[in-house]
Amino acid sequence: MPPPAGLQLDYVSLDEYESAGWPDVLGMATFDGAPAPTSFARAPSAIPIAQVRTPLLRAGGHIYEVWRYGEAAESGQRGRVRVRRGGDLLFGCIALAESEVLPAPGGSTAHSALQVATSEVYREICATLDAERYPHLLRIWNYLPDINGTEHGSERYGQFNGARRRALRACGRALEGNVPAASVLGSPAGSPLVVYFLAGRTAPTFLENPRQVSAYHYPSEYGAHRPSFSRAALLRQPGSTTLFVSGTASIVGHRSLHPEDTAAQTRETLANIEALLGAANRAAAGVRFELGALACKVYLRRSSDLPLVQAELHDALGAGARVIYLQADVCRQDLLVEIEAAAVYPAAA
User: Fold this and answer.
1) Domain count, the chain
2) Full-model pTM
3) CATH number at residue 64
4) Cα–Cα distance for residue pair 244/295, rounded to 1 Å
5) Of 78, 159, 240, 295, which is most buried, counting CB atoms within 10 Å of its CB?
């Protein structure tokens, strides 16, 4: 049986991945030091794998995030960016350790190693999109070590935002409005900056949340450099419509709510996601995205909060929901939970 048309997301174990034998994999992400599938030993560069070191909160086994497209795909590499093309979609990933970047010319200390690494990563991504002729960034995932740490006179998350903005501007990319859905999470100290992304030849519809100030319009109290991402992106294709929900937290307007109350933060986060589903359903006629149909990736600042958050998501999404949980620091230190999501609505529906 041929694979289904359109983009597909699966969270699977290693055994499930190996037994599925999917012919249409675009790319994948692994977590917490998960090994590459054994089938990769025969062709280790065939499918790009973003190896994220953020710990997975699961007893036993690893989980693999697998993106498929329903068409034959072709791999390639440009600089440090590994890619795989399938029809009008491109998956790519890049990892760069701060210890690998060269100091600024003349020994300048104007920028930290994280800023230099971020700039190099985003410049290479933009150059890859131009060369491969996939101009539209749809969704991008960023994992940086010690996200809330302070060095070089400022918080590392702010350094990342500033370097990303400068690189995007230098490459002629938008900094607000038509910017991709995204998330930025912490990873263990000493791990590389890891970025993976989906890009397309068709422009998506970028969505904002009516309950929130757009991230690229945040006031300066949250840092000198505003984040460059949309709250969600909606991709229409002949066989399906895909919704990418950015990393979402307990923020209303521009303020964090429910400090130190993990359950309340989780409920507020889900209310924000429901508002985005409403915006998506209004933007795409004939489509009906629902909370229980989402595939969710949940990040917890404190692993001890896992049972509490699982209970909230069980109540909201139902027992059959596709959810994976990871331990990761979130961009604001008062935020305890962040949830990202994706959903595919078949055209036949």
Assistant:
1) 1
2) 0.95
3) 3.30.1330.40
4) 10
5) 159
